[in-house]
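From the shared-data thread, chain only:
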Amino acid sequence: MTQIHEAFIYLRVRDAAAATDFYKAVFGAEELFRLTEPSGRIGHVELKLGPTTLMLAEEFPEYDLYAPAPGDRTHFCIHLHVDDADALVAKAVEAGAQLIRPLTDQFYGERSGTVRDPFGHEWLIGHSLEELTPEEMQRRYTAMLE
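Structure, as tokens:
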């Protein structure tokens, strides 16, 4: 059986240079390198985002690779666990992200909220309030839905 060594987030965006600048300014990402075509289109950018490598690429319609269309909702979100979710959500919104779900204290012991960046990707940003067992999370989840 093949063993997985790592998993990477790879986002397609309409403007990889602007997305790189946004992720640097808001999330403190560090650019590792980029590959640019002679035309200027960015084929690949690697960013260090905490302990994770985030990869970006422009759209490549000729290979049927597209970024989210402006205003479209994505079908996934990226969860960032940080020291201060309130501060990071405020910083993201100030830099042009749209607040999708305001910060609230969650039953699973985290304070979190969701923003959509200017490139169509959603980020669930949270910080820990308390450590809970899976059993306690289930108890609270059940009670919340009754």
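The first helix runs from residue 16 to 27.
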